[in-house]
Specification:
Elements (H helix, E strand, L loop, with lengths): L1 H21 L1 H5 L3 H4 L5 E6 L50 E6 H12 L11 E13 L9 H15 L18 E12 L1 E8 L6 H21 L4 E7 L3 E4 L1 H6 L8 H15 L6 E8 L6 H15 L5 E7 L8 H8 L7 E6 L5 H9 L4
Parallel strand pairs: 5-6, 5-8, 8-9, 9-10
Antiparallel strand pairs: 1-2, 3-4, 6-7
Length: about 375
Amino acid sequence: MLMHIDNDYNRFRQIIKGKIKDNLRKYISNGEMIGRRGKDLISIPLPQIEIPRFRFGNNGQGGASEGEGEPGDPVSTSDDDEEGGGQAGNKPGQHLKEVELTLDELAEIIGEELELPRIEPKGRKQIISTKDKYTGISRVGPESLRHFKKTFREALKRQIISGQFNMERPRIIPIRDDFRYRSWKTTSLPQSNAVIIYMMDVSGSMWDEQKHIVRLETFWIDTWLQYQYKGLTTRYIIHDAQAGEVDRETFFTVRENGGTVISSAYELCARVIEEDYPADEWNIYTFHFSDGDNWSREDNKACAEILRERILPSVNLFGYGQVESTYGSGEFIDFLEENIKGDNENVVLSYIPDKDSIYDSIKDFLGKGK
C-alpha cells in the first residue's frame, strides 16, 4: 500500500515539474515568486492542477455509474458547473493551487529546461563542513533521541509474546529493555569556495522597472549557483558617480539620483577580490547591471583597464547585463563587445530589453558552465 502511495506521489511531483517547465518563462519574468521565497521552500501558484477529492451528495440523486454520459467523459462535481453564460454569478471562480518545491528542485528544473551545464569548480581550497545524518536505531543513546514509536512497538511485542497484553484493557508500558534511540553518523562534506559579486547602476536613468528586472535576474542566478555551490557567499555593490558596498535589502530597495561613473564599481569590485578572495582558492562570479549610460569615453577606457588587469584574470565569469532605459544611451555594451569580449572567454554580455528577456539572459550568462 505504501509503495502505491509513494508511486502516486512521485507521479504527481513529475506532473508538477512538467507544468512548471511548460510555464517557466512566465514564472521567471514574474516577480511574485520572489516574495514567496522561504528559508528552504518556495510556494508556486500553479494553474490547472486539480487534486482529486470525494464529495458527499444527497440521497435520491442516483448511484454510481447512473445517468447520462459515455466512458471517458469528464465528471462534473456539480449540476451547476457551466462555462460562460455571461451572467453575474454567486459561485467562486477557479483558484490557483499552490505547491511547494525546495530551491534545489527549482534549480534542477531551471537547469533542465534551460539546458544549463553543470559547473566545474576551480580552485584548490575547499571548505570542509560536517553533517550529522541519522543512520539507524540503537538500544542506547541520549533521552533526547529516544524513538518513541519504535520504543512502544518493542514494548507491545514483548507484552504480546509474554501474554501480558490485555485486549480489553490495552496498556503499553515500556521498560528499559524496550527503549530504542536514533543513531547518527557524522560525515565530512567538501564544499568549493564560491562568491558572487553583484554590481548595479542606481543612477538617475535607472528607474524602478529596470531595478526590478535586475532583482528578478539575480534571484534566478542565485538559485542556480546556490544549487551548484553549497554555502555560496554574495556581495553587493551599487554605484552612480561613486560606488559603495551594501547589504542585500539595500541593493534591492535603494533609490538614487545621480550621474554614472562605472569605473567606480569596477575599482571597488577589484579591491574586494584582491583583499578577500584569492583567485587560486575561490570560484568568483561578477555580474554588473546597467542601462549602458556611462559618464565619458575616458571612463570607458578606465573600465577596460580594470577589467583586463584586475578582474578578468581572477574570475570564472564576468557577466554584463544591460537593461533598456528611455534615458540611457546604451553605448556601454557596444564598447565591451568591441574592446573586451573578443579576447576573453569568461566575459558574457547580455541585452535585457524587458522582463520577458530575463529567461534568455540567464541562459546567456550560465549556459557555458563557467
